[in-house]
Amino acid sequence: MRRAFALALLLAVSACGKADNQPGPGNVTVGEARALDEAAEMIEDRRPAAAATAAATPPPSTVTPAASAS
Question: Domain of life here (predicted)?
Answer without folding.
Answer: Bacteria
